[in-house]
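ZP: hey, is the fe (ii) ion complex queued? I don't see it on the tracker
AM: it wasn't, my bad. submitting now with these inputs:
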Amino acid sequence: MLDHHHIPQVDLEFVNHDHQETLVITNRLEELLTGSGPEDQIAAIDGAFFELLNHHHTHFEHENREMERYGFPAYELHLAEHQHLLSGMDKELQHWLRTRDLARARDYVLNVFPHWLMNHLVNMDTVSATYIHRVRHDDLDQAQGF
Ligand SMILES: [Fe+2]
Ligand SMILES: [Fe+2]
């Protein structure tokens, strides 16, 4: 279970907000996959899995846009991690839809994805957010004549 106390907070509010939503969706999906009788929850698992993927499409588009706008130097690197996650998650979802392999879906949702997420937050999102936050404030200072 992802714990919001352990989600690193970054310097951009929309990013923290989106990550909080990631946590809620992931924990719901985890509960569905590990609760009693997941075989009876197939439609709900499908829904939450799609929601997780769609949420990341939207969230990454927003992060990518901001990085591009403010000229974040490691944009390509950060973008590549987003693309890698999306294609991996899409593959897992397709596999789940095809096979209904609960063990594999659990491994992805409980291990693979949280591991990727924590790593990404610490190594990518934190750095990008700090940079964008600083550049935005420099812009503001210049506009105000400081
Ligand atoms: Fe993020
Ligand atoms: Fe990111």
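AM: back. DSSP finds four helices and no strands in the chain.
ZP: great, adding it to the tracker
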